[in-house]
Amino acid sequence: MAISRHHTRACPLPGPFICGYMRRMNKLDHIRNFSIVAHIDHGKSTLADRLIQMTGTVASREMKEQLLDSMDIERERGITIKANTVRIEYPAKDGQTYILNLIDTPGHVDFAYEVSRSMRAVEGSLLVVDASQGVEAQTLANVYQAIDAGHEIVPVLNKIDLPAADPEAVKSNIEDVIGIDASDAVPISAKTGLGIPDVLEAIVQRLPAPEGVRDAPLKAMLVDSWYDAYLGVVVMIRVMDGVVRKGDQIKMMQTGAAYRIDKLAVLKPRMVDIAELGPGEIGVFTASIKQVRDTRVGDTITHEKKPCDKPLPGFKPAQPVVFCGLFPVDSNDFDALRDAIEKLALNDASFSYEMETSAALGFGFRCGFLGLLHLEVIRDRLEREYDLDLITTAPSVVFKLYMKDGEVRELHNPADMPDLTYVDHIEEPRIKATIMVPDDYLGDVLKLCQDRRGIQLDLTYAGTRAMVVYDLPLSEVVFDFYDRLKSVTKGYASFDYQLAEYREDYLVKMSILVNDEPVDALSIMVHRDRAESRGRAMVEKLKDLIPRHMFKIPIQAAIGGRVIARETLSAMRKDVTAKCYGGDATRKKKLLEKQKAGKKKMRQFGKVEIPQSAFIAALKMDE
């Protein structure tokens, strides 16, 4: 049990006596709930580490970098994927000890749903801005979510120890771009610990205390839930009104399911048992919940016998924007894949899935994601944590098909495209993209957006940085737009987007045929004007990516029954005349004719093996 040294001195009694001491202190005006929001790599997780370290929440021997990033994949990629919570006790300069509930949120656009969910559980935000880079696209997106949630915002300028840091310019940048007062922004270096005490004081003095009535019926918001191999389903809650205690009978208002609380704890960041949680507090409980679908994020939790009048407004369900198929390499692993996906879906409310079958790949799942990074993270977690070998089909977005009989269908997989004679028109999703880029690279960014069928909406300047707003088709962005953007701007551009609308365009399904067999996983929807160039590029790539076989392999791109591009992969040739030393030339000719006939037969019946790496590589648009 990790207890701050201040509490050890103030209350030397062990075990439940500490809980009693803490409970007496839990007046609402001594609690602060806040999140840390920022662009990727501006120092959110490092600041969280310093706050935890400086308040003695975790013993120094247990301290490590990115303490709240518990997943291996988070630590490897250096990004936050899941919003994580920790409870800190801080003895302030006014002599009072405050309880600070901190939520460290992700910065990447694909995990914006985690950010919006965390915002609803707290009253204030620390806005962390890199003092050398200024406001970026995702800074804007995240701070607007905090403003929409009614948060008090404290600007924090990080990395002021860097030679390139310019705190005064960044303050005016915050005021110009975001429109909030940054004159009293707190200058810090999260890496060295400089200015961290000032941040703690700013949290206590400038962020509001939570509101709530202790004697009212219990009303708690289900903020998050995850699966623990030993405890089952662990549920994180934020108590709005009333008190919840261990042993209470509670009810989920959306599902109507009732449970008895077995364990009640706060995260420091390990679970520390506590007797009760009052208004304004954030904690976790377990209640022998077996069913994954019983814990809906945004649900209201109340007492079974004495419920509250009306539930809290829930969260808007996440809208997946990218879809792809996940299939096991070995069809015997299908049950293991289903169990793994069910467990992951509990950990991640923005991940959706449904079963599908493919003629080539067998049984699998059609999965929905918030973006390509989200897809990569889910796939990596399935392969690592559940030891599965997976085939991933090409990512696609949802198109709307308006049929001639008046029906409107959603097309998740291009392989399911019906005959065009029955389709009146097709609409595709468009996004509003905000790109922040230094002036030097603006021309390259504009060209990239034009190449992807973009329509420029706005172009403004803040200092030497331009802010470009584009209307872009999501299907052109989803695969490798972010990589290309980073490439043409040498990593200096930042990018954020939101779904805008569906709009009609001249779209067609392009199929790829290998050895005259259509490959479902490589079917894509493309704009008709670009189909030839895209098809040619794909077949040329596949020619290099598919290993040579003993027979010739035609690789074709087709729209309907019309082939628009073709390449032929030449056969490997075995030297069948190697054992003919001298002698008659007809002997050699006979062997070669026999080989030729054998290859023809092989081509008729031969199955072409396409490596998994070829699927992803073939779809990347090199320009």
From TrEMBL:
GO MF assignments: GTP binding; GTPase activity; guanosine tetraphosphate binding; ribosome binding; translation elongation factor activity
Gene3D superfamilies: 3.30.70.240, Elongation factor 4, C-terminal domain, Elongation Factor G (Translational Gtpase), domain 3, P-loop containing nucleotide triphosphate hydrolases, Translation factors
Entry keywords, A to Z: Cell membrane, GTP-binding, Hydrolase, Membrane, Nucleotide-binding, Protein biosynthesis
SUPFAM superfamilies attached to this UniProt entry: EF-G C-terminal domain-like, P-loop containing nucleoside triphosphate hydrolases
A single BP term in Gene Ontology: positive regulation of translation
Catalytic reactions on record: GTP + H2O = GDP + phosphate + H(+)
Keyword Iron: no
Membrane topology designation: Peripheral membrane protein
Keyword Membrane annotated: yes
Residue ranges occupied by any Tr-type G domain in the UniProt entry: 29-211
Subcellular location as annotated: Cell membrane
InterPro entries: EF-4, EFG_III/V, EFG_V-like, EFTu-like_2, G_TR_CS, LepA_C_sf, LepA_CTD, LepA_IV
Residues binding GTP, per UniProt: 41-46, 158-161
Domain of life, source organism: Bacteria
Main location: membrane
GO cellular component terms attached to this protein's record: plasma membrane
Cross-referenced CDD domains: EF4_II, EF4_III, LepA, lepA_C
Similarity comment: Belongs to the TRAFAC class translation factor GTPase superfamily. Classic translation factor GTPase family. LepA subfamily. Belongs to the GTP-binding elongation factor family. LepA subfamily.
HAMAP family in UniProt: LepA (MF_00071)
Function: Required for accurate and efficient protein synthesis under certain stress conditions. May act as a fidelity factor of the translation reaction, by catalyzing a one-codon backward translocation of tRNAs on improperly translocated ribosomes. Back-translocation proceeds from a post-translocation (POST) complex to a pre-translocation (PRE) complex, thus giving elongation factor G a second chance to translocate the tRNAs correctly. Binds to ribosomes in a GTP-dependent manner.
PANTHER family listed in its UniProt record: TRANSLATION FACTOR GUF1 HOMOLOG, CHLOROPLASTIC (PTHR43512:SF4), TRANSLATION FACTOR GUF1-RELATED (PTHR43512)
Protein name, per record: Elongation factor 4
Organism listed in the record: Rhodobacter aestuarii
